[in-house]
């Protein structure tokens, strides 16, 4: 529709008349016609400026065969229109300029096309320019400059390659049209591709021109809308290609950013000349990444044929819909070079690539590598080129859109001449190549989760913390139940913990039970032996009936060992230590009462007050009852206010739940042990004092040894118990109790049993009397000798 409106405005009359003299700088072709269509093509891709001359001299360099062929597509399409009588009695001419990729040349060419031939061709005429519609320019930056000029006379401009979204603003560029979709479609497609491939960070490289700058900005907007992180953005300066020093500085900075970037893909949104320089430096630096190509270089043949180009990594791009130009291959092969019409572009091409003599070589084995025009000019030689090779350089995108632009113009003119009204629809479809390469972590092995790096868009795999698991795929780590579950070795699943305690089948338990049963059996045998010989002196010297109470309490201590083994229960936890404390206190109290009897019985030189006091205390039942009552009070208080209880203890990284008994009140537990230790110390002091007494059976000596063993065992037990954890903690308690029991059994009862069984001659009153007499006789002789 825009084409029709613009043509109505601009094509107000069919221009005819003699051709004017045109400027040959820049290069151009002019063929007159009733209607003249202008064309702007960068056949040379760039210019080289010589700043040493005034004014600076510009030289076109980097001849491009594909752009030459695209300029010929316009000529071919116009010739087809003229031959087809699509526009009866109207001829279409053309005026085509080579802009050399320079905005100054493009503006100069546009001003030339705006001259009024009828107005003597001296000044640009914004009212009736002789060119009614312009096809071009290729690059958006140049098209914007041209569009600002053509907007004054409302001359239609149809670009075949300028995709900048800025050109879609009709308020600024009312006469601009294009046969290729704008960058808005392309940038949306790129953002959707990044999202579809689940990339989360990208880098963007643009250039300080209308195409690269605005394209990069729109890309970043679309990435932000989709919550995609832009790891870095780099805009090449406007004089990137012109200033070598600046170019090297920017390249070094850009390569540093690319090398250190965590971006999963890098979009290069700039002209192909900039891309070529960037990719050469990438190859030199040995960098391999994922690249997203915009339509300016997605299908560029020169880039795809760069040496080792595959080493840059994976490249995928977006291109418009592609089509062949109908009949153009045949035109190039058969008639383009035989045309009699003046075509300076063809002469320029033949200057660079003279035709080879007719050859019978098959097309499949032709060497169609184009020689470098710069090296040819320096060497002064020319390399011929088989014309059939040109067919390989005909593209299917820009060439088709040039052809389409000419057809749109023809249809517009046909409509003005009462032909069928035809509308042209622009195709916005894209072709996409998939890739599977990525630089950042997108998924993780089991036991790892994805976390964001500091100051980076990229994510990395991080090992789950203790007690946490992840099934992989980048999922977040989740906690296992700390009390009942633990993590597998790969940290990919939660496993149920097993209950652990000192079982009956444990080797340590077997040893403890063996000694415990042995202690019980020996205690019973000693009790039987004492019962048989209860009227003998040795039994009486051991305490008489107190010895049976002592054996009974010792038996209770052996029996309570079972409460420290096996699975803890509420009863065993509460009864174990208090029962031992009370039973062993009774045992030690009996020993203390027995020692008090011996001490009073054999001590005759005590002072009156001390002797009377000891004699009053020499009541065994009262001593045992009073001493035991204190311990019973402590244990009752313990069990009432802070009794021991079962606890399940486990850490995150442990596969077991330990069942153990908590002491409840550690203070009362300590008070219980302290009280027993106090009685043991008193016993030890009495026994040590009584070692000088005439005791045939050495009760005091053996008691002092047993009490010493008890004290040492429990002094060693306390630090070991505190620093030990696990199921064997209760085994240490049981072992300490066993050693304490055996110290009494072995030191207090075993010597008596030995005498009763093997030294019966000492188990009578006469032996005791003789021993006492000898003791005092020896003591008296010692006194006399002094």
TrEMBL record:
Residues 508-763 form the G-protein coupled receptors family 3 profile domain. Keywords: Cell membrane, G-protein coupled receptor, Glycoprotein, Membrane, Receptor, Signal, Transducer, Transmembrane, Transmembrane helix. InterPro entries: ANF_lig-bd_rcpt, GPCR_3, GPCR_3_9-Cys_sf, GPCR_3_C, GPCR_3_Ca_sens_rcpt-rel, Peripla_BP_I. It is a multi-pass membrane protein. It is found in: Cell membrane. One of its GO terms (cellular component) is plasma membrane. GO terms for molecular function: G protein-coupled receptor activity. The chain crosses the membrane at residues 507-532, 544-565, 577-600, 621-641, 667-688, 700-722, 728-750. It holds the Pfam family 7tm_3. Gene3D superfamilies: 3.40.50.2300, GPCR, family 3, nine cysteines domain. This is G-protein coupled receptors family 3 profile domain-containing protein. It comes from Oncorhynchus tshawytscha. The lineage of its organism: Eukaryota, Metazoa, Chordata, Craniata, Vertebrata.
């Amino acid at each position: 529709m825009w084409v029709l409106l613009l043509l109505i405005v601009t094509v107000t009359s069919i221009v005819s008349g003699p051709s004017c003299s045109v400027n040959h700088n820049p290069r151009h072709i002019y063929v007159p016609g009733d209607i003249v269509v202008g064309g702007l093509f960068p056949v040379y891709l760039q210019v080289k400026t010589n700043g040493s001359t005034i004014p600076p001299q510009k030289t076109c360099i980097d001849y491009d065969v594909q752009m030459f062929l695209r300029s010929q597509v316009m000529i071919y399409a116009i010739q087809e229109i003229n031959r087809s009588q699509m526009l009866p009695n109207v001829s279409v001419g053309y005026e085509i300029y080579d802009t050399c990729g320079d905005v100054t040349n493009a503006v100069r060419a546009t001003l030339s096309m705006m001259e009024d031939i009828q107005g003597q061709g001296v000044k640009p005429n914004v009212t009736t320019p002789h060119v009614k519609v312009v096809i071009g320019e290729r690059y958006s930056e140049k098209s914007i400059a041209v569009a600002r000029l053509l907007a004054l006379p409302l001359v239609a401009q149809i670009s075949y390659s300028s995709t900048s979204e800025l050109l879609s603003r009709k308020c600024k560029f009312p006469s601009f049209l294009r046969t290729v979709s704008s960058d808005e479609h392309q940038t949306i497609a790129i953002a959707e591709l990044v999202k579809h491939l689940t990339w989360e960070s990208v880098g963007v490289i643009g250039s300080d021109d209308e195409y690269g700058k605005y394209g990069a900005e729109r890309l970043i907007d679309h990435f932000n809308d989709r919550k995609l992180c832009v790891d870095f953005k780099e805009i090449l300066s406007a004089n990137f290609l012109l200033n070598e020093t600046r170019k090297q500085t920017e390249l070094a900075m850009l390569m540093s950013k690319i090398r250190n970037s965590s971006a999963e893909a890098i979009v290069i949104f700039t002209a192909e000349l900039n891309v070529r320089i960037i990719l050469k430096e990438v190859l030199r630096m040995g960098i391999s990444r994922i690249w997203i190509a915009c339509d300016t270089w997605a299908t560029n043949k020169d880039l795809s044929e760069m040496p080792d180009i595959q080493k840059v990594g994976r490249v995928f791009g977006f291109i418009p819909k592609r089509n062949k130009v109908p009949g153009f291959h045949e035109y190039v092969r058969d008639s383009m070079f035989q045309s009699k019409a003046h075509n300076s572009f063809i002469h320029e091409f033949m200057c660079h690539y003279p035709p080879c003599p007719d050859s019978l070589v098959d097309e499949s084995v032709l060497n169609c590598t184009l020689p470098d025009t710069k090296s040819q000019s320096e060497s002064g030689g020319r390399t011929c080129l088989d014309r059939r090779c040109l067919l390989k350089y005909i593209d299917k995108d820009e060439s088709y859109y040039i052809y389409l632009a000419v057809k749109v113009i023809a249809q517009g003119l046909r409509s003005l001449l009462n032909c069928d009204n035809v509308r042209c629809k622009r195709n916005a479809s894209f072709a996409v190549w998939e890739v599977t390469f990525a630089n950042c972590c997108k998924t993780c092995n089991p036991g790892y989760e994805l976390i964001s790096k500091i100051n980076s868009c990229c994510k990395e795999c991080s090992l789950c913390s203790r007690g946490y698991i992840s099934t992989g795929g980048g999922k977040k780590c989740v906690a296992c139940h700390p009390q009942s579950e633990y993590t597998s070795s790969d940290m990919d699943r939660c496993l149920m913990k097993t209950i652990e305690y000192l079982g009956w089948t444990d080797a340590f338990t077997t040893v403890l039970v063996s000694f415990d049963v042995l202690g019980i059996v020996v205690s019973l045998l000693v009790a039987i032996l004492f019962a048989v010989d209860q009227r003998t002196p040795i039994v009486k010297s051991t305490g008489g009936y107190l010895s049976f109470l002592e054996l009974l309490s010792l038996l209770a201590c052996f029996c309570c060992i079972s409460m420290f083994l096996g699975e803890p229960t509420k009863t065993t936890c509460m009864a174990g230590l208090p029962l031992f404390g009370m039973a062993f206190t009774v045992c030690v109290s009996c020993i203390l009462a027995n020692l008090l009897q011996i001490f009073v019985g054999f001590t005759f030189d005590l002072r009156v007050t001390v002797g009377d006091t000891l004699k009053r205390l020499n009541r065994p039942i009262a001593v045992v009852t009073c001493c035991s009552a204190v311990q019973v009070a402590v244990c009752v208080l313990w069990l009432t206010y802070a009794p021991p209880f079962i606890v399940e203890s486990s850490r995150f990284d442990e596969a077991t739940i330990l069942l153990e008994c908590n002491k409840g009140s550690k203070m009362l537990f300590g008070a219980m042990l302290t009280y027993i230790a106090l009685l043991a110390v008193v016993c030890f002091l009495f026994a040590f004092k009584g070692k000088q007494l005439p005791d045939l059976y050495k009760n005091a000596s053996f008691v002092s040894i047993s009490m010493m063993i008890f004290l040492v065992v429990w002094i060693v037990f306390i630090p070991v118990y505190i620093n030990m954890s696990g199921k064997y903690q209760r085994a240490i308690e049981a072992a300490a109790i066993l050693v304490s029991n055996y110290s009494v059994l072995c030191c207090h009862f075993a010597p008596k049993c030995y005498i009763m069984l093997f030294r019966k001659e000492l188990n009578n009153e006469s032996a005791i009397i003789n021993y006492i007499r000898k003791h005092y006789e020896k003591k008296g002789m010692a006194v006399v000798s002094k």
